[in-house]
Amino acid sequence: MQYKKIIEEFYKSVKEGGNPLSLPEEGLEIYRNLIRHTVYEFLSSVFPLTKKITEDKWEDLIESFVSSQNFTSPYLQDLPFHFIEYIEKKDVFKDEEYLKDLLRYEWLEVEIFNQDVPLKESEFSWQNTYRLSNSARAVVFQYPVHHISQIGITSFKHKKGRYNLIIYQNPESFEVEYIQLTDFLYEILNSLESGNLYKISTEISVKYSVNLELISNHMEKFFKTLIKNRIII
Fold first, then answer.
1. Which terminal residue of the chain has fewer beta carbons within 10 Å of its beta carbon, N or C?
2. With a threshold of 0.90, does the pTM exceed it?
3. Neighbour tally for 88: CB within 10 Å
4. Three-state SS string across the chain, please?
5. Which intervals hold domain Putative DNA-binding (predicted)?
């Protein structure tokens, strides 16, 4: 039997029971419990706030997730992405939309923390074309996930709106941090690769009725901050 097929049969026995590989039952049960425990502990460490809020159903949620997975990847770091896919597909939080945002925010914090920060700082020029680095994401949330620690769960879930964030890894402290953006700046960052910075900023400033000349010094300072923090390269 091919190795891949053996792995598939093994995980099938973990999910559904049975013993198609005729493994020793005692050992198989140990592996079943070990896999479930590992998945539970890992996802709990990635999504600590989501776990805290959903404490009464978190264990059942992990169990149903494990039972639904094919486990095609041997890497633990792939689990959070598949977990979020599962949550969205099953619409688990349909009555608690704020949890979808929180789940995604917590995952992004871990994903960005695991990225390598570019070593070299780019030069600033309005004529340059930039892009977001791998250690940064421009994201829109419906809830203020970045303020949940300050305002608490009760206030957080009642503040639905539009929150544009840059989430990035600080190149000096290596901590994951954020910058809140206006719609105008968010759209510029989402369009970086479509032309040089001056061209993009000019086009989008027209859309938002912004006088670019009046704020050019502030804009330059902002982009230099992004460059210094390796958010754009």
1. N
2. no
3. 13
4. CCHHHHHHHHHHHHHHCCCCCCCCHHHHHHHHHHHHHHHHHHHHHHCHHHHHHCHHHHHHHHHHHHHHCCCCCCCHHHHHHHHHHHHHHHCCCCCCHHHHHHHHHHHHHHHHHCCCCCCCCCCCCCCCCCCECCCEEEEEECCCHHHHHHHHHHHHCCCCCCEEEEEEECCCCCCEEEEEECHHHHHHHHCHHHCCHHHHHHHHHHHCCCCHHHHHHHHHHHHHHHHHCCCEC
5. 9-87
Instruction: Identify which of 145, 148, 147, 143 has the alpha carbon closest to the alpha carbon of residue 158.
Output: 143
CB 51 within 8 A of CB 107: no
Query: In this structure, are residues 233 and 117 in contact, taking their beta carbons and an 8 Å threshold?
Result: no
Give 118-233's CATH code, choosing from 3.40.50.150, 3.20.20.70, 3.90.930.50, 3.30.1330.30.
3.90.930.50
Tell me the one-letter amino acid at 174: F
What CATH number is given for 1-92 in this structure?
1.10.150
